[in-house]
Design brief:
It contains 9 helices and 8 strands. With 229 residues, the protein is α/β, with parallel strands linked by helices. It folds into 2 domains: 150 residues, Rossmann fold; 67 residues. The strands form 2 sheets. A 6-stranded parallel beta sheet has the order 5-4-1-6-7-8, with helices on both faces. Helix 6 crosses helix 7. The longest helix is centred in the N-terminal third of the chain and has 21 residues. The protein is globular, with a radius of gyration of 17 Å. The chain starts with a strand and ends with a helix. The structure holds magnesium ion. Magnesium ion (MG) binds next to loops. This is phosphoglycolate phosphatase.
Length: 229
């Protein structure tokens, strides 16, 4: 069967200039009147649900449905504004890589991201990458990225209307958590050091392939389109 490629967003496809962090800070201030300590909370590789839960706990904000929906509404509004204001970029090689893969009948593109689903859509739309992705696993409900990987795998099966074995899946990401969650579903992993983790740290986590960036589109495409044995 064809390969399913599950892409992370932040640090892999794009660098939003910390638009997510900025928007979370603005939303916390607007809705609850509190600031910080965002810089003390690890965000890379984690789910928005986990990051927000840490922030709520730090500020002793009750984890109620009302607080969640009010916070999310403010977060998405501020995220849209932050994306327009901050100097983000689509990372090297990504536009050509996705255009080529989208036209390749041997692969199907999806997302595996810790972002809330609406946040993921806002980021991808801002950078005009959203049209490539019809399904994915998102960080709305789960704390552990491994669970998001399972969601993404289920979404791939639903999208293709067939069982997708782990060996036909590639997870593409920029953190040790991406590598670990790929293993959790039996997938192969391509890592890239365009996020906050160095090449050496990612190498230690043992991906199948590791790139400093995706500017060598032909080499990355060759990895991702090779059919499993
Ligand atoms: Mg990432």
């Amino acid at each position: 069967m064809s390969n399913v490629l599950l892409f992370d967003i932040d640090g892999t496809l794009l660098n939003s200039g910390d638009a997510g962090q900025h928007a979370m800070e603005q939303a916390l201030l607007e809705v609850f009147g509190v600031t910080g300590p965002y810089e003390n909370i690890l965000a890379a590789g984690r789910t928005d649900r986990a990051i927000t839960t840490d922030l709520f706990a730090h500020h002793k904000i009750e984890s109620s449905e009302t607080n969640w929906s009010t916070f999310q509404e403010a977060y998405f509004r501020h995220l849209l504004q932050s994306l327009g204001k901050l100097d983000g970029v689509v990372l090297p090689g990504i536009v050509g890589l996705l255009d080529g893969l989208a036209a390749n009948p041997n692969v199907t593109l999806g997302l595996l991201t810790g972002n809330f689903q609406i946040g993921a859509q806002l980021k991808l739309r801002h950078y005009q990458l959203d049209h490539h992705f019809a399904f994915g696993g998102f960080g709305d409900h789960h704390f552990d990225r491994d669970d998001v990987a399972r969601l993404a795998m289920e979404a791939a099966c639903a999208h293709l209307n067939q069982t997708v074995p782990g060996e036909s899946i590639w997870v593409i990401g920029d953190t040790p958590s991406d590598i670990k969650c790929g293993r959790a579903i039996g997938a192969r992993v391509v890592a890239v050091s365009t996020g906050i983790y160095s090449y050496e740290v990612l190498e230690e986590a043992g991906p199948d392939f590791l790139f400093t960036d995706f500017s060598d589109v032909a080499a990355v495409t060759q990895c991702l389109t090779a059919l499993s044995k």
